[in-house]
Model the fold of this input.
Amino acid sequence: MQATPAHIAPASLSHVHKRYGAFTALEDVDLSLQPGRVLALLGPNGAGKSTAVSLLLGLQRADAGEALLFGQAPQQLDARRRVGVMLQSAALPETLRVGELIAQTRGYYADALSVADCVAIAGLEGLLGRRYGKLSGGQQRRVQFALAICGRPQVLFLDEPTTGMDIEARQQLWAAIGERAAAGCAVLLTTHYLEEAEALADDVAVLQAGRIVARGSVAQIRARVLQRCIRAQTELDVEAIAHWPGVRSARRNGVAIEIQAEPAEPVVARLLQADPQLQDLEVRRAGLADAFLAITRSAEAA
Done:
């Protein structure tokens, strides 16, 4: 496997702009992947995530700025051979069997993983003889992951990788992604499952309307939202609670209310005083999902 000089990022965008007619998909975006680290690129639909991935893969060209893979243009074959890709959709031949797909894809690489390794890593036991088109959506995603990693990539692009998977398969894939990163692979992950980003990511970048509006470690992003989350079952009026001191937001979710507050202690004390019958009280710190919503709402308002 060809080594990349330490000062060159495996994949990067530098001051990138991309427009589709009058629509600005990306505006002055900088991104950099690092060996052994998972970067989660988050954002609402239409924020520009897929465009950023397309530019890094050389599927599109930037209107301004620069996209690089291993210091080269992403269209260069030498760079592309060192990359593994799992996009949201994959046009694979439905009549081919899983074993045939893996054998065909392995043939493109000089130092590919063995079929047995691909099967073990992607959780494909018992599926090699099945036709791809007869698999469930989650099983097809696992096949796509096997094809993405079979060439021992130095950079791995994962665009919504666990869509359609059940919880067990999702957790198995999380473990496999973590192992790829631990082995030195640079990973770019886009996902709408924020618990997935929180579980996997070393670094986070939040895209909103084509701009990076926040970046940092998961802890740094989470720290931007200081409030804690309070949940309890109560008949108290949620609209009245929303106006209590320290309460940032309050909403009813079935029989429970969910409150964002800082500091939390006075709000909890008032809840207990106002409703002695209050049940299932829970207080937790704000997570990545809370931070993501706060950051994107703030950026949208701005």
Remarks:
- The radius of gyration is 22 Å.
